[in-house]
Amino acid sequence: MIPEIINFKLTSRCNHDCSYCYASRSDKELGLEELGGIFTRAKSWGTKGIVLCGGEPTLRREFDKAVRMVNEMGFRLFLAYFWNY
């Protein structure tokens, strides 16, 4: 079965410190080369879309490059992020 859309956690970083949050606070992130390899494999499967999520995915170092990579590979891009209020 081909995964049509893949949720990909870009980072665990978050600009909130909610006491009830289950997410880890790790600063470990895959490098762009590793991301490219994962996206290339997903493309070979016939995957159509990538959801970039996190933590707060926009806090990832080189977020713009990850977005560009997804777009250049022809995926439909979705972002899952939280509004600050």
Described by the principal axes of the CA atoms, the overall outline is globular
Bin the strand percentage. 15-25%
Radius of gyration over alpha carbons? Answer: 13 Å
N-to-C terminal Cα separation, in Å?
40 Å
Query: What strand line-up does the widest sheet have?
Result: 1-2-3
Number of DSSP helical runs: 2
Pattern of helices and strands: EHEHE
Report the biggest beta sheet as strand number plus sense, adding barrel if it closes: 3 strands, parallel
Helix content: 25-40%
Let me know the average pLDDT: 89
Low-confidence sequence ranges = none
Class from helix and strand fractions: alpha/beta
Question: Quick one: how many beta strands?
Answer: 3
3D structure, described in words:
The chain is an alpha/beta fold and 85 residues long. It has a domain at 1-16 and 49-76. 28% of the residues lie in helices and 20% in strands. The protein has a three-stranded parallel sheet, covered by helices on one side. Strand 2 (49-54), helix 2 and strand 3 form a beta-alpha-beta unit. Helix 1 packs parallel to helix 2 (63-72).
How do the helices and strands line up, and which of them pair or pack?
Elements: E1 5-11, H1 32-45, E2 49-54, H2 63-72, E3 76-79
Parallel strand pairs: 1-2, 2-3
Write a concise keyword list for the protein shown above.
single chain, 85 residues, alpha/beta, 3-stranded parallel beta sheet, 28% helix, 20% strand, globular
